[in-house]
């Protein structure tokens, strides 16, 4: 007789949500994670009362009221609204592209003036089919916005020239003809009061968790203890990279504690010029309206993924999409393994989507 119904590999939001649903239905679960903490990339480090988003900014936002209500069942969320600032060679612009942005770039004051300016600039690509990301961006919003707010940031994020990146990466660029700096259109948005760790701990309450435990190193003995395995790690790694490695972009963070009450006056500042080596600076206290007399910032650098680094962003070109589909087909042949989450599905998910996928995967078991 198996000791557990489910061995859940990964204590991030996918694994924790699946474990909660399984336990609620009377199933016995063991959750393991190779990291020394739960929460996956949503993990927060407490620095003298400031909850530092250790793996980059995480803002919970969703259109899914069921998921919003589910998360709020465990912890209340504050009213944080994501309103990032773009810094281009020392000049500041509001994001996403809205009337504040257009006034800062062109001095236009009405939606009609802004629309006319965008249409004028888009004519550069009139009659031509975009062949790369640069041409696609210009065809959508014109050269000024592209040069100031897209080009440098995108090239740092992807590690190659915009003229070398495929057009499909930016199929659309949201443009708002209102003075609205709210980055997301979702009706529900906020940060868990007390940090994401509280949410994860409540999801995993009463469930056995083993940290610093690498499933792939102890696959046979761990798998033998459960009827089914729920795997939320990288699917190509699960199969020993037998078909080849999937490509990822990874991030590196430089964290600094500063003895000043405020560094940049905003949680998220993107650096859109090519000269600044990092893509953005996160000032963590602003996620929770902190009043501490000091602050903590993280500079974020993007680079190619190498084995041993944390995979963050999928590279959804033809090669990787085909390879991911082949691995997925192999995964579907594994009768006692359930693959789910960002790494296992080779798909970028927001946090609400990760939790929704856990619901979907659990419902498939019924």
List the keywords.
single chain; 366 residues; alpha/beta; seven-stranded mixed beta sheet; five-stranded parallel beta sheet; 12 helices; 16 strands
Fold and architecture overview:
The protein is of the alpha/beta class. Helices cover 32% and strands 20% of the residues. It contains twelve helices and 16 strands. The chain has a seven-stranded mixed β-sheet. A five-stranded parallel β-sheet has the order 9-2-1-10-16. The protein has a two-stranded antiparallel sheet with strand order 3-4. Strand 12 and strand 13 form a beta hairpin. It is globular, with a radius of gyration of 22 Å. The relative contact order is 0.20.
What topology does this entry show?
Elements lengths: L3 E6 L3 H12 L4 E4 L11 E4 L2 E4 L6 E3 L2 H10 L10 E4 L2 E4 L4 H8 L4 H12 L10 H9 L1 H16 L29 E3 L5 H8 L4 E3 L8 H5 L2 E6 L3 H4 L9 E11 L9 E4 L8 E4 L11 E10 L8 E2 L3 H15 L4 E3 L2 H4 L5 H14 L2
Q: For the residues shown, what is the average pLDDT?
A: 96
Uncertain spans, ≥5 residues at pLDDT below 50?
none
Give the CA-CA distance, first to last residue.
Answer: 21 Å
Q: Biggest sheet: strands side by side, in what order?
A: 7-6-12-13-14-11-15
Helix content: 25-40%
The largest sheet is: 7 strands, mixed
Give the strand content: 15-25%
Task: Report the strand count.
Answer: 16
* H/E topology pattern: EHEEEEHEEHHHHEHEHEHEEEEEHEHH
Helical run tally:
12
What's this, in brief?
The chain is an alpha/beta fold and 366 residues long.
